[in-house]
């Protein structure tokens, strides 16, 4: 028999877990983790250079320096699996009034995700930057691990409901805690990797950078998962203590 307080806590924890899973899923698939605001193009020579940069960016081959330059200079946004730049709908980059811009995106393939990072972006002879390489790979694997932990927890929770047992809630809560730590670590790895990239690739003049909404979604998922974990652990432990007291009372 499950106490009403425990049942309410478990229901709230399930809602928080579902909301966090949605946040993590949307965040993984979004390119809006980090964005750059570039100055408008006002001269034909600059426009010609940007056209060439756009073609190199969209051709599918990944070169970190080319991709970074395009993101810096073309109002780019970057995510865990996508990178996007803004391009004009016509060929006149510098026409007044400002041309209407559209966003063009290119996805990272798995091989590109695992490509080593170099101390000088684009220069393979400069040596591998181990810190940036593993930060990049961790920011790829950690959110997937968080999502898998939540899905596995949901499966265990369904089985516990079928069996009418609260005992697995303790283990499910621990899984949610790990998922929350993975979500938080993803944000930390992404921000650390971006900061290191800016140190080796200086931003052009008048280019501003800001965090995107998808990063905040991942950041919000971490406390939601931790709150769900706390509720599940409390419900499991409190129910176990009450059950032990009832058993002792009946024996006595």
UniProtKB/TrEMBL annotation:
Chain segments annotated as transmembrane: 140-163, 170-193, 213-236
InterPro entries in the cross-refs: CLDN1 (IPR042356), PMP22/EMP/MP20/Claudin (IPR004031)
Identification of the protein by name: Claudin domain-containing protein 1a
Compartment(s) where it occurs, according to its Swiss-Prot or TrEMBL record: Membrane
Annotated keywords: Membrane, Transmembrane, Transmembrane helix
Main location: membrane
GO cellular component, one term: membrane
Protein topology in the membrane: Multi-pass membrane protein
Source organism per UniProt: Danio rerio (Zebrafish)
Source organism superkingdom: Eukaryota
One Pfam family linked to the record: Claudin_2
């Amino acid at each position: 028999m499950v106490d009403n307080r425990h049942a309410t806590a478990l229901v709230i924890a399930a809602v928080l877990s579902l909301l966090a899973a949605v946040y993590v899923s949307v965040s993984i698939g979004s390119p809006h983790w980090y964005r750059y605001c570039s100055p408008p193009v006002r001269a034909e020579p600059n426009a010609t250079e940007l056209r060439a940069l756009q073609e190199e960016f969209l051709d599918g081959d990944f070169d970190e320096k080319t991709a970074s330059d395009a993101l810096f200079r073309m109002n780019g946004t970057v995510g865990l699996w996508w990178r996007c730049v803004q391009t004009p709908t016509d060929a006149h980059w510098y026409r007044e009034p400002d041309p209407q811009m559209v966003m063009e995106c290119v996805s990272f393939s798995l091989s590109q995700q695992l490509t080593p990072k170099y101390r000088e972006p684009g220069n393979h002879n400069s040596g591998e930057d181990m810190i940036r390489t593993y930060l990049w790979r961790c920011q790829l694997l950690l959110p997937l691990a968080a999502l898998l932990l939540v899905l596995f927890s949901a499966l265990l929770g369904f089985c516990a409901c079928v069996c009418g047992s609260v005992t697995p809630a303790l283990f499910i809560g621990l899984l949610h805690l790990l998922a929350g730590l993975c979500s938080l670590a993803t944000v930390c790895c992404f921000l650390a990797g971006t900061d290191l990239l800016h140190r080796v690739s200086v931003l052009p003049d008048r280019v501003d950078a800001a965090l995107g909404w998808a990063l905040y979604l991942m950041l919000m998922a971490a406390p939601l998962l931790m709150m769900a974990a706390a509720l599940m652990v409390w419900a499991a432990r409190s129910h176990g203590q009450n059950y032990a007291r009832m058993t002792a009372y009946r024996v006595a």
